[in-house]
Amino acid sequence: MGQSTNGIISYGIQFEEGEGCPWEEAAEAAGFDDPWDDDYLAFALCGIEPFGDVEWGERGSPEYEAVRARAGAYYDKKKAALAGLGVEFLTHCSGDYPMYMLVISESQQTANRGYPQRINPREMDMAENNGDWPARLRAVMEKLEIDGDKEMGWTLCSMWN
After folding, report:
1. Where are the alpha helices (DSSP H) in 30-132?
2. At how many degrees (to 10) do helices 38-46 and 62-85 cross?
3. What's the N-to-C CA distance of the chain in angstroms?
4. Nearest to 5, CA basis, from 72, 92, 88
5. CA distances to 38, 44, 86, 95, 112 from 158, in Å
6. Pick from 1, 42, 56, 158: most CB atoms within 10 A?
7. CA 38 – CA 91 distance, rounded (Å)
8. What is the DSSP letter of 94?
């Protein structure tokens, strides 16, 4: 398996290296091991209880199929709720040393290694200035108790896996 390096441009806010997670204590108190996981985002912002750890049983058994159906329903509900928010956590830097941003979902554009992508700066400016992106970010920042002075804007980052 080879290494991949991707360039990602998106509109949002970034969390600086070593800054920590502003809602880490709240996530731990709610029973989440990873405050950056989108399970916590769905819980904190949409009220969707996490699926949790379960016994799956033997593959193909009725127990397994029942848990599989519940898991599918949970992930469908979570995906729809997060899509309705229009924001998500973006992981960048590397899988071993992740850094995070909170970004507008539809703003993300990725150039995979060896596959350059064209970007239109005018479209980026129009999207930022004519949409509800800053308001969406501010609403989520407020709910997660993120410093309201964080600068919003376009950021180019990379991801190495």
Report:
1. 38-46, 62-85, 121-130
2. 70
3. 10
4. 92
5. 20, 28, 21, 11, 10
6. 42
7. 11
8. E
Q: Which phi-psi region, left, alpha or beta, contains residue 60 (left: φ > 0; alpha: ψ -120 to 50)?
A: left
Both structure tokens of 69: 């159906």
When divided into structural domains, the chain yields a total of 1
Dihedrals phi, psi of 85, to nearest 5 degrees:
-70, -35
User: What domain range includes position 10?
Assistant: 5-160
Q: Please choose, from the candidates 161, 140, 159, 160, the residue with its C-alpha nearest in 3D space to the C-alpha of residue 13.
A: 140
What pLDDT is recorded for position 2? 62
Q: Are the CB atoms for 74 and 51 separated by under 8 Å?
A: yes
Which among 13, 9, 29 has a CA at the least distance from the CA of 147?
Answer: 13
Confidence of residue 29 (pLDDT cuts 50, 70, 90): very high
CB atoms within 10 A of CB 30: 14
Tens digits of per-residue pLDDT, 97-132? 889 999 999 999 999 988 999 988 888 877 767 678
pLDDT at position 97, please?
87
β strands within the chain, DSSP E: 5-14, 87-94, 98-104, 109-111, 153-160
Supply the pLDDT for residue 149: 86
